[in-house]
Design brief:
about 375 residues; alpha/beta; Arc Repressor Mutant, subunit A; Trna Endonuclease, Chain: A, domain 1; 3 domains; 5-stranded mixed beta sheet; 14 helices; 13 strands
């Protein structure tokens, strides 16, 4: 009996150690692509505050990472031992990030450069936790000159149905560095349906140079067209909290006109807050089929469905009020819907439950807000 119990304990111990090692490697990999990972994001990366604290302590004691604390910024960086280990284990994934004089390998001390690494790190971590492929071995080598999409039956290039992944600017800017080097973009998120240029405004309105961002869009659109995408480039703006939505929508560019505001750079730009609940927005952006399924299900509650291309409303409810699906939080669409509500004085908004308060505040008293329970939406999409 004692031997049996000992054997069980040993097996459990081995499983726990394997899980710990897996999370340790995961954290090191995320720091590796980030250059410097914000200290308060380590818990999100491994999924637990208490566990991340113990893991960080062990990695520091073993000489894998160190904490940089200067100019009000705290972040974890890899030490030489960890860099060698990652290059040994995953050369294809980390040669770009941990070789030569690139910014993720030789961290600068200037606060603005470190803050840029933090801004980009948040996107790496958030998308990874949300299930997006971020490492080169897990995603198509989309930006390689040799990469070409297979031709369709009519001889035209088409986008792969399994296309998907996130690419940081270090992975693709190459010869475009002089032209797009000043862009505030963090990277590119590719889905089967569309390419998205990614920004992170964090907790305040980001600086926005229209000429630079227009160049960023035009250069990336040329690449996208060469690879098979036919529609215009879109954008997605991440932010620390839901309340950034109103600030983005109502911004006038600030006193000097150099802060973000809705302009003619992008016709479509989504907002996603860095909260666990909003991972469903990433899921729907990356899975157009699931997005269509959810919309079709929501339309079943309407008395009339509007299928016209470009229509703001999705139909009418039983009281004849126009119904708007706003859970994707596309900024231009939200702005147009509020204008229509101001004119018509009535309308029903469908959004996820974690979006209700902020969208309700922005839309005003004319709108009836109906929250979609996120957990139920996920169960529906997964057939549970």
């Amino acid at each position: 009996m004692v031997l049996v119990l000992y054997g069980i304990k040993r097996q459990v111990s081995e499983v726990v150690n394997m899980e710990q090692e897996s999370k340790a490697v995961r954290l090191l990999m995320l720091i590796g692509v980030s250059g410097e990972l914000p200290a308060d994001w380590a818990a999100y990366a491994v999924g637990s505050c208490s566990y991340s604290a113990a893991l960080i302590t062990r990695l520091k004691q073993n000489g894998y990472i160190s904490l940089r604390c200067k100019d009000g910024l705290k972040g974890y960086v890899l030490k030489a031992k960890a860099k060698r280990k990652l290059l040994e284990l995953y050369p294809d994934n980390f040669t770009t990030f941990l070789s030569g004089s690139v910014e993720t390998n030789h961290i600068k001390s200037e606060p603005d450069k470190r803050l840029r690494l933090h801004r980009m790190s948040m996107v790496w971590v958030y998308l990874s936790v949300a299930g997006v492929s971020i490492y080169q071995s897990d995603k198509p080598d989309f930006f390689s000159p040799a990469f070409h999409l297979p031709p369709s039956e009519d001889g035209q290039e088409t986008v792969w149905t399994d296309m998907g992944g996130y690419y940081g600017t270090l992975e693709f800017k190459g010869g475009m560095a002089k032209e797009i080097g000043g862009s505030r973009a963090c990277g590119v998120l590719l889905s089967p349906g569309m390419p998205l240029i990614v920004y992170n405004t964090m907790e305040s309105l980001m600086k926005w140079a229209k000429k630079t961002e227009r160049t960023m869009r035009s250069r990336m659109e040329a690449v996208f067209r060469g690879k098979g995408y036919r529609g215009p480039a879109r954008a997605v703006m991440f932010g620390n909290r839901m309340d950034m939505l109103e600030r983005l929508l109502e911004s006038d560019g600030g006193l000097k006109g150099n802060l973000f505001m809705l302009d003619d750079i992008y016709e479509v730009i989504y907002f996603i807050p860095f909260v666990k609940e909003a991972e469903i927005q990433v899921r729907l952006l990356m899975n157009p089929v699931e997005d269509r399924r959810l919309r079709k299900f929501l339309c079943s509650a309407l008395c009339r469905v509007n299928e016209a291309d470009g229509a703001l409303d999705s139909g009418e409810d039983r009281n004849g009020n126009p119904v708007y699906f706003c859970y994707d939080m596309e900024l231009w669409r939200l702005k147009r819907i509020r204008g229509k509500l101001d004119r018509d004085g009535r309308g029903t908004i469908y959004c996820f439950d974690y979006q209700e308060e902020v969208i309700g505040s922005y839309m005003g008293s004319e709108a009836v807000i109906k929250g979609i329970v996120r957990e139920r939406a996920i169960r529906y999409l997964e057939g549970r």
